[in-house]
Each structure stands twice: as structure tokens, then as C-alpha cells.
Amino acid sequence: MQKVEVELTCDEAATLTGDRQHLYAIFNNLILNAMDAMSALPKGEERPRRLRIRVSCSEFACEVDVEDSGVGMKSEEIARAFEPFYSTRPSKGTGLGLCTVRKYVSLYGGEAKFRSESGVGTTVRVVLQRGQSALA
Ligand SMILES: Nc1ncnc2c1ncn2[C@@H]1O[C@H](COP(=O)(O)OP(=O)(O)OP(=O)(O)O)[C@@H](O)[C@H]1O
Ligand SMILES: [Mg+2]
């Protein structure tokens, strides 16, 4: 079993109104991807497996960073990551996770962006507009 250090930082005033299924799909997919990326680190790799989630909200938007210390992504992988059925682990993944994230994030007038370095880790930043939920 691999140990993962989890750190959650959240604004006290962080609230977001949204559809449970949408918000679940967005954050479940991002967290599972982060865990997969850390599981894919070569055996014997000493660096700590670290998952950091930061939530901050302004009056108009909620910003969530999901950061991992996993295998990271090359620029060509980042360019294709949201493509339906694109997966670097085709025998396990459907490649539909991020496609679903992008679809649901768009319902909240938001965006999802990757910052990643191969061999170092990845941060996905999701910005959701608070006044523009799919329920509004
Ligand atoms: N945090 C991450 N670190 C490294 N690579 C990532 C990360 N998140 C996504 N990727 C890359 O983007 C690809 C597409 O991700 P996506 O979630 O759409 O599919 P998947 O995870 O492969 O399959 P599924 O979501 O069905 O399990 C992944 O196969 C992986 O190569
Ligand atoms: Mg996935």
C-alpha cells in the first residue's frame, strides 16, 4: 500500500451552489487522476506522494487547485488531455474523465487548466463562476 499525504486548504467562506452530480464528477475525476499519476511513479521512487487541494472563493468565482506529485505530463499530453477517449492508460481508463470535467465546468461558466511538468507533478485549476451555475 502506498501512503499519500493529503492537504486541504479551504477559505472559510467557500460555498458553491451546484448540481451534486456535476460537482461530484468534476472533483472525483480530478482526484482520481491525481491518485493514478502518483500510483504510476516508478517503484522505489522516494519522493513523497502528495495531494494538495486548495479552494478559494471571491464574490464571483470559486477557484480550486488539485495538485499532485505524480508522473506529470508532457506538453503533447496536456494538449490532448481533454480529448474524448484520450488516455495514456487505455487498458484501465476510458479517457472520458477530463472530457466530462470540461463539459460540466462549462455549465458553470468556468474553465479547467493544466500546469504540469513531466516527472515533477501536475496542478489542475478549475474556476467556477458562482453566479452562473447550471441551476441558476
Ligand atoms: N494529474 C494527472 N497527472 C498526469 N497525467 C494526467 C493527470 N490527469 C490526466 N492526465 C492524463 O490525461 C489523460 C486523460 O485523462 P482522463 O481522466 O480523461 O482519462 P483517464 O484517467 O485515462 O481514464 P478514466 O478517467 O476513464 O479513468 C490520462 O490518461 C493521463 O495521461
Ligand atoms: Mg481520469
List the helices and strands and how they pair.
Elements: E1 5-10, H1 20-39, E2 50-57, E3 61-68, H2 75-80, H3 97-107, E4 111-117, E5 121-129
Parallel strand pairs: 1-2
Antiparallel strand pairs: 2-3, 3-5, 4-5
Helix pairs in contact: 1-3
Largest sheet, strands/sense/barrel: 5 strands, mixed
Q: Helical amount among residues, as a percent range? A: 25-40%
Low-confidence stretches: none
Which CATH class? Answer: Alpha Beta
Order of helices and strands: EHEEHHEE
Q: Which small-molecule ligands are present, each listed once?
A: adenosine-5'-triphosphate, magnesium ion
Overall description:
With 136 residues, this protein is an alpha+beta fold. The chain has one domain: Heat Shock Protein 90. Helix content is 27%, strand content 28%. It has 3 helices and 5 strands. Strands 1-2-3-5-4 form a 5-stranded mixed sheet, with helices on one face. Strand 4 and strand 5 form a beta hairpin. The radius of gyration is 15 Å and the shape is globular. Adenosine-5'-triphosphate binds at residues 29, 33-34, 36-37, 68, 70-71, 73, 77, 81, 86-89, 93-99, 122.
Short description:
The protein is of the alpha+beta class and 136 residues long. It is built from 3 helices and 5 strands, in the order βαββααββ.
Main attributes?
5-stranded mixed sheet; binds adenosine-5'-triphosphate; binds magnesium ion; 136 residues; alpha+beta; Heat Shock Protein 90; 3 helices
